[in-house]
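Run DUF3243 domain-containing protein through structure prediction, thanks.
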Amino acid sequence: MSEHNHVVSKDGSVAINMVKETLDRIEPGQREEILNNFDAFRTYLSKRVQLARKIGLSEAQLAQAAEKVADYLAAYEEPRNSEEKLLLELWKVGSKEERTKFASMLVRLALSETV
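Sure, done. The structure for DUF3243 domain-containing protein is below.
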């Protein structure tokens, strides 16, 4: 799969318009598992963050990407479990600065996950 098919490119730029297309490419059963089960979500996120680190993205670039993806998910995806509901509510009440810090924390959470 070429780089232009991904949300985050090697230079760290984020194609927010690719989020829906990327989500749509995930096999439906796997997508539902990821969105319904918080542990599956953490594992999926961890794999993607570790892959991005391998291609050279810094933690700051990952946090910027996470912030943009979280903006998309907050606007277009309904929470499917209590953890996602909490994440959404925190995201909605957070200021721009708080969202930036929260996105950074989510990246660190993903990096701490062992896959």
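The two ends are 22 Å apart (CA to CA).
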